[in-house]
Amino acid sequence: MDVLEGIITYPVEGILKSVGSLAAQEISLFRGFKKELTKLRQSVFAIQEFLDDVSYQPRHNGKAVEDWVKQLKDVAHDADDVLEDINYEVLRRKVEIQNHMKKKVLNFFSLSNPILFRQKMAHKIKNVNASLAVLKSEASFIGLVARSVDRTPPPIMRNRETDSRFGQNDKIIGRKKIVLDIIKILMSKNQEKNLSVMAVVGIGGLGKTTLAKSIFNDDAIRTPFVEKMWVCVSDTSDVNSILNRMLESLKSSRTGLTSRQALLDDLTERLTDKRYILILDDVWNEEETFWREFMDCLSKLNSGPGSIAIVTTRSANVASIIETMPRCDLNGLSEEDCWSLLKGEAFPNGDASSLDSDQERIGRAIAKKCDGLPLAAKAIGLDKSNENNGHD
């Protein structure tokens, strides 16, 4: 793994062994953060499984994986420091008891005060667990899959299939103004003879697909755009495949067509003089010849003026090749919006009002660590919801 090889050798296994040993001990000192210790062990174990997947990563994911592992190394150092503090305190107390040096009255503000020590350790472990939870949720964004040694290499995660329907998890928070602004721009293109193309660009987990769904399903575009098509492109490199999916989106059924001429004839029959909106979701292909060929096909459909294509992609190169309109560079959500998303997933029945100030402070700290990624906030909130409901 070249550059990554030296990073991955950090002894996460040693931390796992240490925290496992501590979690198994029945020591009164741990009262108040034993549950957090157990959760830390589970978190570190899960992260170790993701680390086992690093060696399978394709080269194009190298930088993202390297950054992820470096973040993990920082969190591992924090976990190691916490475990050293706990081990030291356990040893110190044993020595005090053995030497009959334990004082009857301890200064409440001293580190040796058991109540303060528990509170301090509980706080530190919760922070480490929160950081590990974010890393765990980010792992899937860069193609990491928790694996055992005997599993086969994972498929590249960018082959996921998307659709235009809103699901239970497709919450649009912090993006309403962007949606309205884009719709306003789309409406203004009603006299354009040629197909206009807008690119929505951003890293994985920012909610590009959810944004596209919000536009696609908005009532404001139903009347002006007579036809609507949704195609999950992913890393498709076959123009006919995309044309076929466009036709399937219009017919809501499989076409059975294979030749380009037949596909173009059928699409032309359905789109002639009609204004349409086409969503090309999760685009990766950066080949200019591919896009020239595809756009040439679209120009033959005799569609009505003002037709629009919206492309969602992580690649600025894709955007620069295909866009004809100002780009939408999607940024991260605010901390407040991340907290709203996390809270909504964690307490779907509105039970968040029962959170005390300390729980809310911790929750907001976790939301801050999501770095504006709505998918991370949703994943962590859902994990918390399952925990609340007693699910594994």
Automatic annotation (TrEMBL):
A Pfam family annotated for this UniProt entry: Rx_N
GO MF: ADP binding; ATP binding
Domain Disease resistance N-terminal: 14-100
Keywords on record: ATP-binding, Nucleotide-binding, Plant defense, Repeat
Annotated signal peptide: none
InterPro entries: Apaf_helical, NB-ARC, P-loop_NTPase, Rx_N
GO BP: defense response
NB-ARC domain ranges (all copies): 179-349
Keyword Nucleotide-binding: yes
Protein's name according to its UniProt entry: AAA+ ATPase domain-containing protein
